[in-house]
Amino acid sequence: MATIDEETNIAGEAGPAVPRVTLRDPVRESEERANQARLKRLTEAFTIFDQEANNTIPSTELGTVVRSLGLVPTEGELQDVLSEMSDDSNPESIHLDRFLSVMNVLLKDRRYQGEPESKILRAFQVLDPDNNGFISEEELRNYLCKEGEPFNDEEFQDFMTIALDDESGGVCTYKEFIQNLVVEDND
Amino acid sequence: MLSEKWKCFCCPPIVKPPRRGVIVPMDSTRPEHERQIQTQAHQLLAQTQTSPVKPKRKKSDLTLAAVVIIQTWFRRRRALYEMRRKTAWTIYQNIEYAGEQDQLKLYNFFLELMQAVTKNPHDAQVVAKVLRRNSSLTGLVEEIETENLAAAEVISVEPSYRGPHIHTPIHKGHFEALIIAFQRGETLHAHYVFLILQELRNILKRLPNINIVSTHQSKCVTVVGDLHGSFADLMVIFHKNGLPSNENPYIFNGDIVDRGFQSIEVFLLISVAFIVYPNNVYLNRGNHEDHVLNLRYGFMKEIIYKYKSNATRLLRLMENIYSWLPIASLIDDHIFVTHGGISDITDIKKINKIKRHKYVSVLSPSFIIPPNEDQFQISSIPNDILLEWRQILDLLWSDPKQTDGCEPNTYRGGGCYWGPDVTQQVLQKHNWSLLIRSHECKEEGFGYSHDKKVLTIFSASNYYAAGSNRGAYVKVMTNQPLVIVQFMSTRTSQRTLTLWERVSYVEDQAIKNLAEKFTANKSRLMHEFQLFDVQNTGRISVNDWCDVVTRVLDLQLPWRTLKSRLVDTDMNGNVVYESTFRSRELQFTSSVSTNVRRESLCQAIYRNKDLLETVFRAIDKDNSGVISMQEFTEVCTFLGKHNGSTLDEKQIMDLAASIDLNKNGVIDFNEFLEAFRIVDTGDRL
Hints:
heterodimer; A: 187 residues; mainly alpha; Recoverin, domain 1; two-stranded antiparallel ribbon; two-stranded antiparallel sheet; 8 helices; elongated; B: 685 residues; alpha/beta; Purple Acid Phosphatase, chain A, domain 2; 4 domains; 24 helices; 11% strand; globular; EF_Hand_1_Ca_BS (chain A)
């Protein structure tokens, strides 16, 4: 779609100088705006952990930042992201520029999106072979603190606070819990 | 002996777990994660199954994959909350530091206001004395004046007074009696306050600028950071670490007063400890031991409220006492303790030569900055005076930064930001091994910087809101590593709060603070919003909303991250900007409708409530709670002018009349201030 500033001689025939035609591409423009907005959003999330106001964050905070932006990487995957973003000369911190370029790619390729709820339900069912509909605290502790990418005490305590079903006392009724687990932070 | 209601919570330090990266992928289309699982799961299943190896491994793989899915999703949820917690923290800090920058401006405004309002020269003098920046009193004149100030004898103690009685010589029994009285919420009689402060001053005057502390006898010394009037935290510290004594020395590293509600009690208790054990209790001056800050941050208000007719004298005496507080301590010749920090020019030899009591205010010393000059230029100060001032200012106001160099601390309006290279240089020059400082609130109550050469200790827990942060103190022991002890003074739960709880407490308060700021600036904000909304749709883009809010409130905050908790957005993702004020409004007790100009005045009043209250109380010398209509109108008019709005006396009088507070020509200002509240619209009748 073209916006015609002045009368245009479409055929471009020789004559008086042809005025310029500004071509506007609304699709492209809105893409640009979306890119800009995303950039600002990413930068903001990054800056929250940038204590020194020097465009770097400590590597230990990368997981929080990346996850809060909608990605669901495992700890192992996070390590990969970290190595892509960090600088050999300064492995303890991550610079904003590296962060932005890697994050843009990750978001564009829709990486680390996590599983749909149905798969998470299936995961719980694997741990509940008798199909009771619930798992005990004991069993959860055995699985979550000793296997896979184990929780530390703090993580486990926070997990149990929301996982345990008060009424059944001491067990996690996982079907309901999944709603709570997959909480969305809008935008 | 200490009351049992002061429970202590020995919170274990939080250590972030090292990352562990052993996983098994659920689907095999991600070749970069081919890692073999350990035999742990193997063994677990081996006990319960007898099938051959291959199916066993397959089942355990499945289990592990399931476990990882759950762990990963949980970590994501947790990260969202971590982000919210950190964001709330950012809000608090930004608001705090933004406030500190305005110090001098507000102070000058206040002085001008007082001069404008108190036309009676005698009155003006009295009031100005409360806030006087001209302390050119030195030597004998100062002594006589202060003797008069501190004279306790002129205040008689009524027989009806039931609180503790303090007499010289002050001893341990008095200290314990005060603890019990303050725990009960009692206020010490003015007579005894002056007695204690007089003793305190006499001892302080003999001290050098830098306390020389040795652990030779006691083998240890405990350093306590900012307390900010938190009596609860002081009790927790004494409970966990023991009362001060010759065997249990303490260094109090400044910022004892302001913000909290028991500043005077905390100050008195520490003073008495110092008087009883003058060789084993050390005081460092903090940036809040300064009358310029006390005006804004609550100590002045607290004194006026608790000590009424004696407040003026008391505040002036405190001013003088602050100037005699030492500005740093040196432990065993190698650990330097000061409130703020250091800078590129820090030099002990120069510091020792300074006559510290010239600096009645460190932020704005009256002998350097003339009181009535708006257009004052720093560059007009002679260099040697400037350098001397900086020595003290930098010690009390500076903050560390991560990168090298030293630059002015514009965030706070005083002191420097100093980098690791400066730490290295200054430590080396003086042969020190460590710098202990306070001044910055830390979530864990403490924090290391500069390769562990700088330790920040902050002792006021729940500083921003309940659950916002722990407090900590540090024990320095001869030839042993430092021991840092954390605590959180709460009366409710005994267990450590979960992340979910901490986030909700801290965040709620932070969001409330922001919502109040919005409402208090409603006219300006709406004006700006509408500039972007030419077609009057009631909506503007997220970008524009963030821009306006940042500019009008002058706060650099993560607005995009916060947006969902502050405003409504439509289907296209644009902000419905009226919802910025959705849940709160500035309400008056009357139901009289307000027009736009009046709204603006009301918002200005709300924004400056604290200042107005202090002004009103200062004018109200006999503490009757009322000031004349004339005085009230003058204050508000002045405020209006200062805000750049053209408000006339008639408008203000109309306002006061419509709120029906005008009784016989006087205004009950408590009622007036109460009339301006920001309330949830849900509360509206």
